[in-house]
Write a structure and sequence with these properties.
InterPro entries: NADP_DH_HndA-like, NuoE-like, NuoE_dom, NuoE_N, Thioredoxin-like_sf. With 170 residues, this protein is of the alpha+beta class. The protein contains 7 helices and 4 strands, in the order ααααβααβββα. The longest helix has 13 residues.
């Protein structure tokens, strides 16, 4: 019995990806002395190049490394670090380490979820914001910490969030 490969149609979130980025990824994979045991390393590089790991990139890696697409997807979907959806224009990371948790990180995440109408780990419908709860960022003296893009906000209070978000709205 032969299997027929059926690709799912692309959704609205998927974009055509530049060939140059695939060339860069291919050169990286080809530069590895051996491919056995390097899938996670390759996925890190691919996410750095593309910003996320869409289906086309996962299938490219699968073919280049001669492993199944299911195995690649399994690793991508298992680790929180990997994203298979494009991030928003502005990424909001809320530290959920112990110090930040004790100082109110959960209240900050809950407020942002309600304000942005998304859950942590999701992107707003307009593609503007992505909200993430992240493990300790190593700035416990500033707890609770919110990082937006490259900017670090320390000792954040829920009452300050509207003013902070206003800086990033269109």
């Amino acid at each position: 019995m032969s299997e027929k490969l059926v690709l799912q149609p692309k959704n609205d979130m998927e974009k055509d990806l530049p060939k140059e980025k695939f060339d860069e990824l291919e050169a990286y994979i080809d530069s590895l002395e051996e491919s056995e045991g390097t899938l996670i390393q390759v996925l890190h590089k691919a996410q750095k190049i593309f910003g996320y790991l869409p289906r086309d990139v996962q299938l490219f890696i699968s073919r280049k490394m001669d492993i199944t697409g299911a195995r690649v997807y399994g690793v991508v979907s298992f680790y929180n670090y990997f994203n298979d959806k494009p991030p928003g224009e502005v990424t909001i990371n809320v530290c959920t380490g112990t110090a930040c948790f004790v100082k109110g990180a959960n209240e900050i995440i809950a407020y942002l979820e309600e304000k942005l109408e998304i859950a942590a780990g999701q992107t707003t419908e307009d593609g503007r914001f992505t909200l993430n709860g992240v493990r300790c960022v190593g700035a416990c003296g500033l707890a609770p910490v919110v990082i937006i893009g490259e900017k670090v906000y320390g000792r954040v209070k829920v009452e300050e969030l509207d003013d902070i978000l206003a800086k990033y709205e269109r």
